[in-house]
Specification:
The complex is a heterodimer. Chain A has 14 helices and 2 strands, in the order H-H-H-H-H-E-E-H-H-H-H-H-H-H-H-H. By secondary structure, chain A is mainly alpha-helical. Chain A has 2 domains: 32 residues; 203 residues, no CATH class. Chain B folds into 2 domains: 157 residues, P-loop containing nucleotide triphosphate hydrolases (Rossmann fold, 3-Layer(aba) Sandwich), CATH 3.40.50.300; 83 residues, no CATH class. Helices cover 41% and strands 24% of the residues of chain B. Classes of the chains: A mainly alpha, B alpha/beta.
């Protein structure tokens, strides 16, 4: 069940080569180091979108991932600037804290389904933004600025990651860090979806009553999945804060939450790697349309509507439709 | 015979409406007991209370002397009391075999994290799920449709799939929700055989809620009759057939339905 086929090995090989060799070499040849920043953003947004995809997998429309990304960004920023903690320790803490908050929020709201859950999550981002504006520890509208770059990470005197401030090109270092995080995220997602937990998620997505009648503790699994989803949001947000070296209440807004959801739709809700492809296409699609000036939004949204009409199962359904049955 | 399932003075009120009033009967080990009654008699409400899909207003349901009412459905399922649904409640985009594998959740020995990391217990589980599913598919005579997606199956097969999903949990008591509804004579007869076979060979006690009198008379060891939320009779099919209150309730029901 979990053994990879030859095609899957080749696919993974091509993917790794593209991420770790082709992209950096191309950027070096072109001399466009700004592309590192762009690709890093895509990677981080894909990690946060992966969380949204996971909540879709239990049949919940999540338009609130921006809230947890914002939370993660603030937790990491506060720990680094005020407690002097290493960024590398603050990163998992940011994710875990987002997961913890997700459990508290999820307990009441995950009982809701469909449009009711979606509406509540839509409000969450706004609530978190307003909270960040109001609290003293987040420094209100001024935000937290001048966050130092990630320091050295060493275990037993062995340097695993060098101090980013000493590097010639910290953007490239962020790119590699993000690439590794993204690979880990999607490997974990793939494993989860193809393990028993994934099967139970599918059963709940299709019929919660029937799932509970066969002994599945649906409330527990909903919470676990929402916590994992928000963990991804927190980690993605924390990385963003560190790259931008600043966090503001407006760092993640309702529009970002909507984009996370769109990434999943565009890539395909039936495919684990859907959010990654969706994020890539949406991000670059938007940039490519830049030259159309004031018509950018019009063209962008028309294309989106068209794509969702023509490919309701997402972009990946184009390639995978014929072997969809086998994948599951 | 000992009482496996006891329904003790169970009452359900929805606001001012009393759906079930002080219902008391028990289900013995390895019997097939049917709850029948005209439309609106409170059969479905009682069924939901027994499986904890609805809380009781008063009274309790006991399984081997232990209260199982007013819990959560998955906890009742864990104790071995598993309900089926009518045909629309299935895992639509799973195949028959996949549905049966997922439904073996209660037989899993490894933790969910164990499956993620791929521990030895998890691998053993996965293998055992497969064997159990194949056995059950053969037992139910569903080999030909094992690879079919549930949403493509005709109604008769869906009913059987519902029972297969329930059986996959290895239950002690199976609660069937109108297993004969909308079936023609032949389909009803094969369903009667199937339910009997489940009871005889899997040693499962069956409690079913049903509208179809002829099927119920054939299949049941005992019958409980509800009318307007009250229990009006309890006995063997023969006793029920000759019970005046039952005859009255059923003959009178045609007028009532038009009136309502």
């Amino acid at each position: 069940m979990l053994k990879l086929s030859l095609t899957q090995w080749i696919g993974a090989g091509v993917f790794f080569a593209a991420v770790f060799v082709v992209a950096p070499v191309t950027i070096a040849v072109l001399g466009r180091t700004d592309l590192f920043y762009t690709l890093t953003s895509v990677g981080l947004l894909a990690i946060a979108s992966a969380g949204v995809w996971l909540t879709f997998y239990i049949g919940r429309i999540n338009i609130g991932q921006g809230a947890f990304a914002l939370l993660g960004a603030y937790v990491s920023a506060i720990l680094v600037t005020k407690a002097g903690m290493s960024f590398w320790i603050s990163l998992p803490i940011a994710g875990l804290f987002a997961a913890f908050v997700a459990v508290l929020i999820g307990l009441p709201i995950l009982r809701l389904k469909g449009v009711y859950f979606a509406m509540i999550t839509l409000v969450l981002t706004q609530v978190f933004t307003l909270t960040a504006l109001a609290l003293p520890i987040t420094n209100g509208a001024k935000g937290i600025t001048s966050i130092p770059l990630p320091g050295e990470l060493s275990v037993l005197g062995l340097t695993l990651i060098p101090d980013f401030a000493t590097l010639d090109n910290p953007r490239q270092a962020f790119y590699y860090t993000t690439a590794v995080l993204m690979v880990l995220t999607f490997a974990a997602m793939y494993r989860l979806v193809n393990s028993r937990l994934g099967h139970l998620c599918r059963s709940m997505q299709q019929n919660e009553e029937l799932a509970s009648s066969i002994g599945v503790n649906i409330a527990y699994i909903r919470i676990v999945i929402y916590a994992i989803a928000s963990f991804f949001g927190g980690v993605g947000g924390a990385m963003f804060g560190s790259i931008a070296q600043s966090v503001y209440p407006s760092s993640f807004q309702v529009a970002d939450s909507v984009n996370f959801m769109l990434n999943c739709f565009l890539g395909g809700l039936g495919y684990v790697f859907g959010p990654m492809l969706g994020t890539f296409v949406l991000y670059f699609g938007w940039d490519l349309l830049f030259e159309f000036g004031k018509y950018q939004m019009l063209i962008y949204s028309s294309v989106l509507i068209f794509l969702i009409l023509v490919l309701p199962n997402g972009l990946l359904s184009l390639r995978l439709s014929k072997k969809r049955g086998q994948d599951k | 015979m000992s009482a496996l399932l006891e329904i003790n003075h169970v009452t359900k009120k929805f606001g001012g409406l009393t759906a079930n009033n002080d219902i008391t009967f028990s289900v013995h080990e390895n019997e097939i007991l049917s709850v029948i009654g005209p439309n609106g008699a409170g059969k479905s409400t009682l069924f939901k209370m027994i499986s904890s899909f609805l809380p009781t207003t008063n009274g309790e349901v006991l399984f081997k002397g232990e209260r199982i009412s007013n819990l959560r459905p998955h906890i009742v399922a864990r104790k071995g009391i598993v309900r089926t649904f009518q045909e629309t409640t299935i895992f639509k985009s799973m195949t028959v075999r996949e549905s049966i594998i997922v439904a073996q959740h209660l037989r899993a020995k490894a933790s969910l994290a164990g499956y993620f990391w791929g521990t030895k217990t998890a691998h053993e589980d996965v293998e055992s799920f497969g064997h159990y599913a194949d056995d059950l598919i053969e037992f139910l005579g569903m080999s030909e449709i094992a690879g079919e997606q549930a949403s493509n199956l005709p109604q008769g097969n869906l009913r059987a799939l519902g029972i297969a999903i329930g059986l996959a949990t290895d239950p002690k008591v199976l609660l069937l929700d109108e297993p004969f509804a909308g079936m023609n004579h032949d389909e009803t007869m094969s369903m009667v055989d199937l339910v009997r076979k489940v009871r005889d060979e899997r040693e499962v006690t069956v409690l079913l809620v049903e509208h179809d009198m002829s099927a119920v008379m054939k299949i049941s060891d005992r019958i409980v009759v509800l009318n307007f939320g009250e229990m009006i009779a309890e006995g063997t099919p023969l006793e029920i057939q000759n019970d005046e209150r039952v005859i009255e309730a059923y003959l009178g029901s045609a007028d009532d339905e038009i009136g309502i």
